[in-house]
Amino acid sequence: MEKILQVKDLELSFHTFAGEVKAIRGVSFDLNKGETLAIVGESGSGKSVTTKSIMRLLPESSSEFKNGEILFNGNDLTKLSDSQMQKIRGKEISMIFQDPMTSLNPTMPIGKQVMEPILKHQKVSKAKAKEVCVDLLRMVGIPNPETRIKMYPHQFSGGQRQRIVIAIALACNPKILIADEPTTALDVTIQAQILELMKDIQKKVDTSIIFITHDLGVVANVADRVAVMYGGRIVEVGTVDEIFYNPQHPYTWGLLSSMPSMDLAEEKLYAIPGTPPDLLNPPVGDAFALRSEYALQIDMEQAPPMFKVSDTHYAATWLLHPNAPQVDPPKTIIERMKTFRGSRYYEQATGGDA
Amino acid sequence: MVKYIGKRLIYMFLTMFLIATATFFLMQTLPGSPIASYNKLNQTQRAIVEKKYGIDKPKPVQYAIYMKNLAKGDLGTSFVFKGKSVNDLLASRVKPSFILGAQAMVFGTIIGILLGMLAALKQNTIWDYGSTFLAILGVSIPSFVFAALLQYWVATQWHLLPVGLWNDGWKSSILPSIALAMGPLALSARFIRTEMIEVLGSDYITLAKAKGANGFEIAFKHALRNALIPLVTVLGPVAAGIVTGSLVVEQIFAIPGIGEQFVSSIMTNDFATIMGTTLFFSALLIIIIFIVDLLYGIIDPRIRLSGGKG
User: Fold this and answer.
1) Does residue A84 sit in helix, strand or coil?
2) With an 8 Å Cβ cutoff, are B203 and A103 in contact?
3) pLDDT digit string, tens, across residues B65-111
4) Of A163, A335, B173, B237, which sits 20 to 30 A from A240 (CA to CA)?
5) Of B202, B210, B299, the CB nearest to A102
6) Would residue A97 count as lying in a domain?
7) Chain A residues in contact with B208 (beta carbon < 8 A)
8) Domain count of chain B?
9) Would you state the pLDDT for residue A212?
10) How buried is A152 (Cβ within 10 angstroms: 0-12 exposed, 13-18 middle, 19+ buried)?
11) Could you tell me if A143 and A208 lie in one domain?
């Protein structure tokens, strides 16, 4: 598969009054053409920062690339000048933000906001741009776009505003669409509509999507592959099936266990104990070790490398080391693994001889 | 919208009526008399003069007469300038004051906005500190000090512009306009800086960046209009500052404007002129505040639409 974006060993720090916050500590991943990659993780795990750094939208005065590269079209995005970045933003890579209530300019008609990237990046007349704008708004499901382009954001509902934001992001048929928790601020029915819309659009315009979320239900719905982030690192990456049915990292186990399940209605909902690591003084070894009941001595001393589980599935946990003791994941995870061909708990559907 | 404007106009008239009444009765408590050599006159002479100007009648009657004339737009006759009506007196002096005020307002707010934007865009750099320093100077130093400094350096030391008076065309207006503009300049610079910093941190600015907009487009197309909204609110008081500032600045530059007229009429106890000028200034302020409120709606579509139905 063609790799459209490669992030290699990315390290990024914020300079704050308290000191240097190492928000991203060596993140590597690839984005293939036409796929949806979900990045999941709790607040502060670095998922938003990673994608904002791809777009170079972080404040230049306080953030700094320490290491690594972001390769797109043969260019390292961390090294491009501002004006070179401006030609990529909105045209090659565009972004959908979390809160549609605040991400549109309140004093500008929405038509003008949708037309802006078209006029900026494509050599078209205003009339043509308006035509494209109306088509886009119709595609994202805004009724009567011809008359509504003159209206202001406050005259639209939250779901409609997110549709408009999506129209803006799609205006120039970007190669990569970054969606930063696009449904978090919406209510559940609207969430489902927006997710459907994004899936439809991906089929129509064949763009690659990086989808950031902390909602595993959403991940199962939209993603092809999943990267799990924790403490500024990717701890596990694989296809949706691999992450959901054959997870290897204790943090992924925790995440999946804390997902409410319909089948186990009477059971108490699991919560991962403790709090995320302080990235001002990041832990030496595995950042999750202090919260993990499966932590080994080496987890405290040395950060685990990525161990290969399959060609598409990697996890950074010492438990995968050949010399590591065999541990059993939580019961709910074993239940999941039983259905996954290739996992060590796999049972034939006939219920046979495991 | 029409209903809203109508309601506002009624309130404006009510305000003017209250101001006129209050000023009229406050004037009566002022010590002294407009008749310069009051003490040298004997009883009969006083009676003749007082009858001539109508100040022999009881106060309520005087008030009724004044309000009746005011309703017709007649501000009365000056006590000091023989036979000249206050209307004529003001009319001849409106032009210089208006030119100064308008120039100071436009120059002050535009430069102030630009300085504030510069400070916000280059936050915590030498540009920011420089413009903040200027703004603090502008707020804390009274306009007459600027006036005197400008006169000293620009006029008497460098001989670039006239030191005062209103006889050299537009050139005469430059120094007093600058002196007057310092207040509004400083105020708008402070306001825009604060507001700009907040707006630049908002999501829609990040979205504009994500569209590929450059620094200029972000500052002027996206941020400025939103940052202007709170500034419009203080433009009313800014205009008031210009009006009061002009009282002193016109005096310093010896410009035959309304402010100068106002000061000298107070010196000579010229009741009718004091009343007339006060009412004129009040009317001006009320109208400016009204315009500012309308401007608000033009800049912020959210206000325009909700106000439109009211």
Assistant:
1) helix
2) yes
3) 888 888 888 888 777 777 788 888 888 888 888 888 888 888 988 99
4) A163
5) B202
6) no
7) 105, 116
8) 2
9) 92
10) buried
11) no
B113 & B190 share domain: yes
Same domain, residue pair A158 and A179: no
**Of chain B residues 246-285, which have a CB less than 8 A from chain A?**
none
Nearest to B137 by CA among B179, B193, B195: B179
Count H helices and E strands in chain A, helices first. Answer: 12, 12
Coil, strand or helix: which one is A263?
A: coil
Are the beta carbons of A105 and B204 separated by less than 8 Å? Answer: yes
**Cβ(B210)–Cβ(A178) under 8 Å?**
no
- Specify the pLDDT at position A113: 93
Instruction: Give the residue from A149, A173, A197 where a domain finishes.
Output: A173
Residue B182: which domain range?
93-300
Model ipTM over 0.90: no
Segment B168-216, tens digit of pLDDT: 777 777 888 888 888 888 888 988 999 999 998 899 999 999 998 888 8
Which stretches in chain A have pLDDT values below 70? Answer: 261-267, 348-354
pTM for this structure? Answer: 0.81
- Contact predicate A55/A62, CB 8 Å: no
Residue A88 CA from chain centroid, whole number: 20
Residue B274 lies in a domain: yes
Contact B301 A88 (CB under 8 A): no
Determine the residue among B207, B225, B296, B305 to mutate to test chain A binding: the one whose Cβ has the most chain A Cβ atoms within 10 Å.
B207
Report yes or no: A41 and A230 within 8 Å, Cβ to Cβ.
yes
Q: Inspect the interface and report whether the beta carbons of A95 and B210 lie closer than 8 Å.
A: yes
DSSP A49-63: HHHHHHHT-S-TTTE
d(CA A222, CA A186): 17
CB B228 within 8 A of CB B301: no
Res B160 pLDDT > 90: no
Q: Name A5's bridge partners.
A: A31, A72
For B42, counting Cβ atoms within 10 Å of its Cβ (0-12 exposed, 13-18 middle, 19+ buried), the class is exposed
Cα–Cα dist A127/B41, whole Å: 83
Which residue of chain B comes nearest to A58, CA vs CA?
B206
